[in-house]
Structures are given as structure tokens and as C-alpha cells.
Amino acid sequence: MKMKKGLTAKGRATRQRIVVAAALLIREKGIAGTSLDDVRVATATSKSQLFHYFPEGRSDILAAVTEYEACQVLEAQQPFLGDLSTWESWQDWQHAVVTHYTELGQRCPLGSLTAELGKSSPQTRAVVSSLYDKWEAALVRGVETVTSAGRDAALGRARSILTAVQGGVVMLQTTGRTDYLEAALTEAISPLRPVGTQVGSV
């Protein structure tokens, strides 16, 4: 996560503590239901402290929380996303993804935050683009490791998998059902399964 320049180690820790607390409040109460006063109370900080770390107030905090939530999307997939070198690790990764979004249910903190900030804003685009670039790169490395696919083919497969995740998440958010996400991911990663291995076997 990007930090304000010139902060001491203690200052960076305080800023991060505010961001995490704000993220948890937004997850619990929603964006509209979370005020700067709520954040101050939750973090035991003064108004002057809050504006020291976030000069633009609410918009700065929301931008920082958006970046934090983007990091959480990738963190929830670890350690599997970092080492997709076997069919078993791909299955473990699939389980981690489904578990993460099942726990979130019909709430999507990152989606709500990007909508609030404006999907066309340069700041939002930068955060979302960085998230997908890192996610895609990890999937490409995994595909290349378990197949003999060239770079272009691996990229295509990785993008299909990532699209399956996002499509399944949209269906989850609109229906409350995880089976769409599970089915989409199973189909997307099935070409990576070694010959003779049964679906779901580890």
C-alpha cells in the first residue's frame, strides 16, 4: 500500500491502523454509514491527527481503504496464488477463492468503494488495474508451470480464469449463491488437470 511520503515508522503504523479500522467499519456499516467521527472513535485519534494523515479527509481515507481492500483480495488467495505449480495447488487456490467470496457473501467492499470513488477516476483505475495486473501475472506463471503452453496461450487461459472468478462473483452478489462461482472456476481450470486425474481429486 502506498504511504504518505515523509512519515516516520510510527507515523506509517498509525496511518495503517486508521486504514484497517476504516476498512472494518465500512465492511460492517457500509460506506454511507461510516463517518469520519466513527473512524476517529474506533482509532482513538483526534481530528487533527486524522487530517494529518489524510489531508483531503473522507476521499483520502476511501482511496486508502480501496487500495487496502485490493491487497486483501490477493492476500486471501495466499499462499496458493504464489505457487500454482501443481494441480493440487490449483485446487487449493480455487477453494481459497470460493471461501473468500463466500465469507463476503453479497457484500463486496472493493466494488462498493470503487463505485463511490467513481470507476472512471484515475485513482480508482490505478488501484484496480494494479490488482488485476498482479493477479493475472500470478495466474500466468501458474499456467506456464503446469502446462507446456506458450506465453500467449498461458495469458489467454489466465484471463479466462480471472474472468470466471469475476463473473461468478457477480452472480454471487446478485443471487447469494456460490455454485455459479464454483462451476465457473472448475470449468476454467479443468484444462490444467493432468491426464487421468479425476475432477476434485487431490
UniProtKB/TrEMBL annotation:
Residues 18-65 form the HTH tetR-type domain. GO terms for molecular function: DNA binding. InterPro entries: Homeodomain-like_sf, HTH_TetR, Tet_transcr_reg_TetR-rel_C_sf, YxaF_TetR_C. This is Regulatory protein TetR. Keywords: DNA-binding, Transcription, Transcription regulation. The keyword Chloroplast does not apply. Residues 104-184 form the Transcriptional regulator LmrA/YxaF-like C-terminal domain. The keyword DNA repair does not apply. It comes from Streptomyces xiamenensis. SUPFAM superfamilies: Homeodomain-like, Tetracyclin repressor-like, C-terminal domain.
